Amino acid sequence: MNTNDRKAKQIDNSSQANDDDPKKKKAHLRKAAGIVWKDPSLDDWPENDFRIFCGNLGNEVTTDILANAFRKYKSFNMAKVIREKRNNKTKGYGFVSLSDPQDMLDALKNMNNKFIGNRPITVKRSRWKDRELDSKKNKDFDNFIKDVYSPTKKFRKFKKPVKIDNKEVHDRLIDKKAKNS
User: Fold this and answer.
1) 27-79 pLDDT, tens per residue?
2) Rounded to whole angstroms, how far apart are CA atoms 12 and 26?
3) Nearest to 93 by CA among 63, 57, 65, 41
4) What are the chain's domains?
5) At the N or C end, where does the chain have fewer CB atoms within 10 A?
């Protein structure tokens, strides 16, 4: 067990220490570049939702404007426009949470290229669950890495290059040309 696995286990254990409270949400563990961390930004979102990525948002679009555009769906939960921390400008994308899969499909079909603010937005299914530490995608990748770097694997060793004189190379080329003609 490497240090990152231990850290992930410690983070997971600390987040599950008070699981007696049924209102307590599961910790969202993320992994990238071999580092595992707890992502508190996902704690605000509903646990089992169907999330939509909204791209190509203009600077004038706020969370309220985005939410108002999707409130026509009965299962609408919340919306959020992602902003830069330094200057509070939008990064050009946001997310919308719906609790019904059929509403999500309808929103993907109907809201794509609709104008919100002064730009047509693009909508896609969000892949936030694929980035969780315990997702199938991460487990498959970890198994792949273990297979590639397992100590039982034997790799073919290459022979050391032999130093050849230029005259030898020239003679070989001349011999090949002579045989071909």
Assistant:
1) 767 777 777 778 787 788 888 899 999 999 999 999 999 999 999 999 999 99
2) 9
3) 57
4) 1-43 (no CATH), 44-131 (3.30.70.330)
5) C
